[in-house]
Write a structure and sequence with these properties.
The complex is a heterodimer of chains A (116) and B (113). Chain A is 0% helix and 50% strand. Chain A has 116 residues and is an all-beta fold. Chain B has 113 residues and is mostly beta strands. Helix content of chain B is 0%, strand content 51%. In chain B, strand 5 and strand 6 form a beta hairpin. Classes of the chains: A mainly beta (116), B mainly beta (113). Chains A and B meet through strand 4, strand 5, strand 9 and strand 10 of A and strand 6 and strand 11 of B.
Amino acid sequence: EPEVTQTPSHQVTQMGQEVILRCVPISNHLYFYWYRQILGQKVEFLVSFYNNEISEKSEIFDDQFSVERPDGSNFTLKIRSTKLEDSAMYFCASSRPQQGANTEAFFGQGTRLTVV
Amino acid sequence: AQSVTQLGSHVSVSEGALVLLRCNYSSSVPPYLFWYVQYPNQGLQLLLKYTTGATLVKGINGFEAEFKKSETSFHLTKPSAHMSDAAEYFCAVSRTGANNLFFGTGTRLTVIP
């Protein structure tokens, strides 16, 4: 069964360093998303991406964050200069409209980012 | 504005007993409603969703949920709990479907043998 895959599963980085989280969405999907979950808190929407541009983003997704689809398969989240509070589980998701409606997002297993 | 409230961060039930996980939402427009499950060390898996039409929706693994507009609720139920149901369950709401989901804080379900 097709699935969203994320690498790495766990990444440790020093504060101030750049980090890139990688995702391979399901191959025929058209919409791509990043969410994060700080330990003990809600899963929060960061950004959605469609047709090679950001379609929606939350207040969390500030100038330190960027997304890219560098080729036909990968979807990346870059954090330019990590802060301690960026430590979280980051989930990638993708979806494809069916019968005219875009209603089901498929999530990856997540990348746990630890900023030290 | 949208939000989701899940009552009870932890719920314990005996194997074979009814599972009831509560979710209340607020939304300024007719919502899309979802339940996701997260097993240990795995991603979020869609259990079921309400978009339009029938208010009682059936999902995978014997779960179902009923959309009650008057109560702004979308509680998740299963008649008989199984050990394999032990997981974290998240209710989510969206204005537009799969995009920009607002999640609740989650309910950890423990099934006691």
